[in-house]
Specification:
Layout lengths: L4 H15 L3 H11 L4 H5 L4 H14 L11
Helix pairs in contact: 1-2
Length: 71
């Protein structure tokens, strides 16, 4: 399967909204369903999706919280 960053982001976003998953869960599920390694998928993650995964990881306590400005 050929996958680019736009198609990957759409698949992940769809999984998050339709299946009510976190971004981390969606990436893990996507990799599992498509028999992909996490290292392979990181090469094509868009910066926007990386930021969403990082924010999710901070909220779940997997990463140290960073200061952010209120929006």
């Amino acid at each position: 399967m050929f996958l680019n960053s736009v198609a990957l982001q759409k698949n992940i976003e769809d999984m998050v909204s339709e299946k009510r998953m976190t971004y981390i869960e969606a990436v893990i599920s996507f990799c599992s369903e498509n028999d992909l390694d996490f290292e392979d998928i990181t090469k094509i993650l868009s910066p926007n999706l990386k930021d969403k995964i990082k924010l999710c990881a901070q909220e779940e306590g997997f990463m140290k919280q960073e200061a952010r400005l209120p929006i």
